[in-house]
Amino acid sequence: MGTVIAVANQKGGVGKTTTCISIAAALAERKKRVLLIDMDPQGNSTSGLGIDKKSLRCTTYDLLVGNVSGIEQVIIQTRAKLDLLPANINLVGAEVELIQMAKREKRLFNTLSAVRDQYDFLVIDSPPSLGLLTVNALTAADAVLIPVQAEYYALEGLMQLMTTIGLVRKSSNPDLRLAGVFITMFDSRTQLSKQVRDEVAWYFQKDFLRTVIPRNVRLSEAPSHGTTIFEYDKRSKGANSYRNLVQELLDRLGSQPWMNGTLGQI
Ligand SMILES: Nc1ncnc2c1ncn2[C@@H]1O[C@H](COP(=O)(O)OP(=O)(O)O)[C@@H](O)[C@H]1O
Ligand SMILES: [Mg+2]
Known about the structure:
The chain is an alpha/beta fold.
């Protein structure tokens, strides 16, 4: 059974999509079988992998509302050697349509169960909200990974996210773990970046990941070429830092405390 990692933070522009594409690609580079699941109507994970959002016949929207008979109809193979459940703006409709459905927060979890054993890792990109799409992502996940931008007000909103994670654990996914909290777009030249890093590290203690993702222009350029950072510039700082993040994640996921559930309790 593959491990499902949801990348979540209801703030926009903090690096969720960049993280999803980059850790999915770093895992694929290590010969892991990976499915990237785009749960954001903006479809940036989809276009970032070079897939034309407008030409899609089936998307995660069709999966969630039950328009397709099987998940295989929606999965696309990408040239980054990973599979994708693509999304586009149609997914906006799902927030509304799901409200009337039975077990609405379990729709993603249920559809993924058909393919979970075909992958080693399933990585979910979430939208910038705490609505039903994010709740579906958290319900389907074994672990949630939280990117925090090295900016003013970084911690603001994180408490709301932690509350939502707590509610999901109480209702639909008691085993949900915290994969970790880490800093993105770190600028080592600024005091502010360091202050934010230290504050987040202090707050999250053992759940704070050592790996810091620097601000790196190559990371921001890669999606416009429809390529991952590993195809675009595999020796860049961005590529190396995401390799390190994946190593740290694998160490945590494989460690004994993780297995007996004492690590990452929220
Ligand atoms: N480490 C980084 N260095 C430089 N630019 C980055 C980095 N991470 C993300 N970006 C850029 O910042 C913007 C927001 O990132 P994105 O991953 O789309 O965030 P989110 O999915 O949370 O909205 C994008 O233009 C992206 O290319
Ligand atoms: Mg995004």
